[in-house]
Amino acid sequence: MKLRIAALALLWLCPAVSAIAQERVAQNPDRAVLERRLRERTAQITRQRLGLNDMQMQQLQRVNSRFAPQLTAVVRQERETRRQLRQQMAAGAQPDQSRVSALIDASLRLQKQRIALIEAEQQELAAFLTPVQRARYLALQAQFRNRAEQLARQNSGGRPRGGRRRPPPAGPTGR
To answer: At how many degrees (to 10) do helices 131-155 and 29-50 cross?
Structure first.
């Protein structure tokens, strides 16, 4: 339940996640109610922490909804590219040098594309948010993303999405 709430919180604050979740909401009407409540709550939190007026809230929601489909597409492509690269580099497999090169190039291109979208979004936000409001908004987005990732890790037993456990972090000596 906590994972669902955190994921739904991202809907409003992270446009790239929103379109994916909206597909799932269409499949589960109870989830739609939960999403609506969560959107209302995150809107209240955002309004309060950023000190937004009604006009700014409406503009923020419009900007988020305009960039969501583009960001969602890029994030999906990045995820698929990373998956393919992991598959090429899997232990025991003989990586195809040209395919690995193409995947690295695609990954870099997609990262640049995502950054360009974020920059364009930030330019639009700058038209009605102060720099301090934008900084607070970025921090709020990061808090929700981090919390959702934390809950996802807890829900999966500390395993990444692929189901394999990550190796423990190296100590101070690098071992």
So the answer is: 140
- Going by the DSSP 8-state scheme, the letter that residue 173 receives in this structure is T
How far apart (Å, rounded) are the C-alpha atoms in residues 46 and 52? 8
- DSSP category for residue 174: -
What is the per-residue pLDDT across 33-72, written as a single tens digit (0 to 9) for each?
888 888 888 889 999 999 999 999 999 999 999 998 998 8
- Record the tokens describing residue 66, joined without a space: 């305009």
Count of positions (residues) in the chain: 175
Q: Angle at which helices 29-50 and 54-89 pack, to 10 degrees?
A: 120
**C-alpha to C-alpha distance for 73 and 67, rounded to whole angstroms:** 10
Assign 3-state DSSP to the chain and report helix, strand, coil percentages, each to 5: 80, 0, 20
Predicted TM-score of the model (pTM): 0.66
Q: Can you tell me the mean pLDDT for 111-116?
A: 97
Q: What's the average model confidence in pLDDT over 69-81? A: 94
- Angle made by CA atoms 43, 29, 157, in degrees to the nearest 5: 75
